[in-house]
Amino acid sequence: MRKAIALLLLVGLLGVAACGGDDDEAEPEATPPTEAADTGAAEPDPCAKDQLNLVTPGSLTMGTDNPAFPPWFQTAEGEPWDPTGEPTHDGYEAAVAYAVAEQLGFSDDEVRWVVVPFNNSFKPGPKAFDFDINQVSYTEKRNEAVDFSDSYYDVEQAVVTLKSSEFADAASLADLQDAKLGAQVGTTSYDAIVNTIQPSQDPAVFDNNNDAISALKNKQVDGIVVDFPSTGYITGVQVPNATAVGRLPAGPEYFGLLFEEGSSLRDCVNEAIAALREDGSIDQFAQEWIETSAPPILE
Amino acid sequence: MRASAASGRRSTLIALGSTIVFAVVVVLLVTNAPGWPAVKRAFFDGEVFRESLEVIPEAFLLNVKIFLVAEAFILPFALLIAILRGLPGPVFFPLRALAVVYADFFRGVPTILVIYMLGFGAPALGLSWIPIDPLFWGVVALVLVYSAYVSEVYRAGIESVHPSQEAAARSLGLSRAKALRFVILPQAVRRVVPPLLNDFIGLQKDTALVGLLGVVEAFRQSQIEAANTFNYTPYVVTAIIFILLTIPLARLTDWLVARDRRRQLAAAGAR
Amino acid sequence: MTAAPALLLEGVHKSFDKHEVLKGIDLALEPHDVVCLIGASGSGKSTLLRCVNLLEPIDQGRIVLGGDEITAPGVKVDRVRRRVGIVFQAFNLFPHMTVLRNVTLGPIRALGASRAEAEAEARELLGRFGLADRAGDYPDRLSGGQQQRVAIVRALAMRPELMLLDEVTSALDPELVAEVLSVIRELAESGMTMLIATHEMSFARDIAHRVCFLDEGVILEEGDPEQIFTAPREPRTQQFLQRIVAAGRL
User: Fold this and answer.
1) Which residues, in sequence order, are CB contacts of C40 under 8 Å at separation 6+?
2) I need a labelling partner for A276 at 20 to 30 A (CA). Which of A36, A194, C37, C86 fits?
3) pLDDT surpassing 50 at residue A117
4) Which of chain C's residues have a Cβ under 8 Å away from the Cβ of B167?
């Protein structure tokens, strides 16, 4: 019997010894960029394509949700896009993504797409993408867990109701006080309801915008809050009898590309975005893909 | 006598010793893993834990309401289905068939689908007399699904009552319905209390699915907190609350089973 | 005018699947008759009794209870069963009810008696058979003999015209048999019409007005106990009784 205990203890200690790794390594260390080639030339450009630290060397891996909705991504027919299918250049985020890739020196067939559901983009551990583009708004809290690029779109939130709703002609935030509103979980749209509109009823919270839209159609909610660009597709295609009532007072909210914390790619992408702003590409994309006639701002 | 006490002590020591060793090995393995600090921050963040405790327990009250209301309907409805299933004779075939189809269907379809289809689908029909409240349909969906499982539990209980009991009751001149009501069902239900409690515990977890319809119950609330903080600790808080609820019920089930067994053994040995 | 027989079986046949168990039973009991059925296991004694209280439907023939043909189509089976009391070999008391409740369940729920009436009568019956102090106990607290006596009381509480006893002592330890037999004896003496299937030969000899030997689904021989037990006519009856005597049970 004593032998049995001793044996167990021994096995335990062996197990600890074998598996106990070094505990001074706190985080998965991003492997540093490769040393300069022995050409003896001047210091290499850290954003050169072959210097980048990528998930799959040689290609740029970008992530977004499935399905990805207009006006951010769409098929040639204007339908929501499936990242696992044929790639598309249509849509604001599609345009921005490919433009950034081009700035970094990647051709279209050096670009890969992976599906990253919104809630997965910030799970711990190494990322399966180089960056994620999925209408993720920058917030300080989020920035503690991941890294963001500079803005590629300045966001406004908007309220959508059915045309038949008593709240369809709301002209101010006060008019929305008694509304039952809905939004997708974990979005700045949800924050906008809770912090900006502050209605008397708690909002309904859904896994995704599609469910929120179903609830709107069913009159289970009086209105939903989404980022303004999405209202075009919603009121134009998904719920034709809905209307965008108004935009919420603008905060400094913007969408950024999402990176693994400490990613060395981020600064290179920021340069790319700056270049795209300067040559007017960003504005052009906004003109092309996002409705310019906007409803009034609710105060 | 002394020998067995000594060997009993030894067994206890071995059990204790091996448990401690095992626990130590696991803890050391986990905390020495290279990713541990990141995981710890993501799942066991103290500040987020405290913040979550301010909102999640309140949302959990909604889960409690859901499962209490649902269970109150499940228990009688499932019994009805089990009884329909057992109606004898060709004239009752349609009812028997209905009960079988019902149980097969609602045990076959994933609960999450039933919740979606009823929660978003029923109100979409646009009939003014159909309620649109997502909480209502969430509870209805849970009742429909769990009644299917519980009816099978009842059926097993009813069939476990020896046919001689029914024979004795019918011999007194009691109708089939009265024999069922006074003799068979009381015995059947007593026998299946453990599996009934088991299903009840399962129901408590599935109340989280109602959150899909927009209702902010504990799981949805923890999602909100998690997305706010980009941290998973709120999920841990919710998990702990659920576990705290389950443990007393699990012990109660164990106690009931043990007491039942004692009574049966006593009855068997009485003569 | 002759009173109707208490029980009449004419040409009763009963099969289970392909196996015919009762191959033409003819039997008549007058009111207050005590008739014992004897025979080997499998001869059909239990089946016969279960046919009389309609637990088993018969395939051919008819059964008449106190002038009413109970095997005719459209007969209300539950009503018939209230007129016939049956006690089984395995006592079949309801384990989730007290002794008192076991006895009063039938009168209250099937006969519509009030709780007070039913309980009063139940206590009286229990008292008559020495079980008054057990009224509040659950069956698992009683000995086998006590449980069987309760089963008899339960059947009696329905005030039946006829009592059927199906080997009611066969499952009892020997020392508990006597108490049950004395209950049956008392019932017989009080004039209850009874049809008793039994292995207890001495007892049968003692209380029966008539004894029927059942063999392979028919009543092979029928007569008064003395004649059957001392001078059986049929060879198979003789064989059967010889085996019983050899086993020391007569």
Assistant:
1) C215, C240
2) A36
3) yes
4) 55, 88, 92
